[in-house]
């Protein structure tokens, strides 16, 4: 009889412990997902960077990785309707890309809470994690060129000018001509540089610049590198080629 009482007591104790444990599990709320951006790279001998924003916030942020640093972290979205990640500049020190938005397609029903950008040699993999615990990934091929990111957080809002077209692209030697650059992010302080020399630049609009070239400026045939330099903020555009025949 005493043995039966002991067995019954042990059984009741086990049942109560299991019930309490189940109640604790049922009442435990999983922690909210961490809100951040993680930037990783597999090649890390040089300087790496990621300049990005959360759509639809638009506020630019930057993660800088010094040589021999493989991974860094940046701010997550503040808005409750973040849907995508907009990359403005991305580099692992050898390869880079400009202007990439991921993931492709329309917004997910649940907002984005965090993301990871991982650079694997010549390819970037972007993954966003949604509040409903689902995720989506996209890839982007990189090109073998260094891409500049802002060096400090304070310079994130400073945007490099970009040349889309040069007209004309071919000019005749010893003949005065006006060249027209079209692009974006030009300012009144923008200066056109031709192989480092700066002819008089005329600011027409944020998307148009002009420069008058004297006959002496193009006396020698050959190819000239044309860039736009921001005299005030130190920005520099991509380069296009002017051919003198």
Give a brief description:
The protein has one helix at residues 2-27; strands at residues 36-41, 48-55, 61-65, 71-75, 84-91, 96-102, 112-120, 123-130, 135-141, 162-167, 170-171, 177-184, 190-194, 201-205, 208-213, 222-230, 240-244. It is mainly beta and 245 residues long.
Could you explain the architecture of this structure?
It contains one helix and 17 strands. The strands form four sheets. Strands 4-1-7-8-9 form a five-stranded mixed sheet, with no helix packed on it. The N terminus is likely disordered. The chain is about 10% helix and about 45% strand. The protein has about 240 residues and is mostly beta strands. It has two domains: about 120 residues, Immunoglobulin-like (Sandwich), CATH 2.60.40; about 80 residues, Immunoglobulins (Immunoglobulin-like). A hairpin with a 4-residue loop joins strand 5 and strand 6.
What is the strand and helix layout of this fold?
Elements: H1 2-27, E1 36-41, E2 48-55, E3 61-65, E4 71-75, E5 84-91, E6 96-102, E7 112-120, E8 123-130, E9 135-141, E10 162-167, E11 170-171, E12 177-184, E13 190-194, E14 201-205, E15 208-213, E16 222-230, E17 240-244
Parallel strand pairs: 1-7, 11-17
Antiparallel strand pairs: 1-4, 2-3, 2-5, 5-6, 7-8, 8-9, 10-12, 12-15, 13-16, 14-15, 16-17
């Amino acid at each position: 009889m005493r043995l039966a009482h002991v067995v019954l007591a042990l059984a009741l104790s086990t049942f109560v412990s299991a019930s309490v444990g189940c109640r604790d599990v049922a009442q435990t709320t999983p922690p909210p997902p961490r809100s951040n951006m993680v930037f990783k790279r597999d090649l890390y001998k040089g300087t790496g960077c990621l300049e990005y924003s959360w759509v639809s916030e638009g506020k630019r942020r930057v993660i800088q990785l010094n040589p021999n640093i493989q991974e860094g972290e940046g701010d997550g979205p503040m808005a409750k309707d973040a849907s995508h990640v907009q990359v403005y500049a991305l580099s692992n020190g050898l390869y880079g890309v400009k202007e990439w938005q991921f993931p492709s397609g329309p917004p997910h029903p649940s907002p984005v809470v965090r993301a990871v950008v991982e650079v694997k040699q010549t390819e970037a993999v972007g993954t966003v994690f949604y509040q409903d615990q689902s995720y989506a990934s996209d890839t982007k091929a990189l090109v073998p060129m260094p891409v500049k990111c802002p060096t400090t957080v304070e310079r994130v809002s400073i945007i490099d000018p970009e040349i889309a077209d040069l007209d004309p692209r071919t000019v005749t030697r010893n003949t005065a001509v006006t060249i027209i650059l079209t692009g974006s992010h030009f300012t009144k302080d923008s200066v056109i540089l031709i192989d480092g020399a700066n002819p008089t630049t005329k600011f027409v609009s944020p998307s148009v610049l002009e420069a008058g070239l004297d006959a002496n400026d193009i006396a020698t045939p050959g190819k000239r590198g044309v860039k736009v330099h921001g005299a005030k903020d130190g920005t520099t555009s991509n380069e296009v080629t002017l051919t003198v025949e």
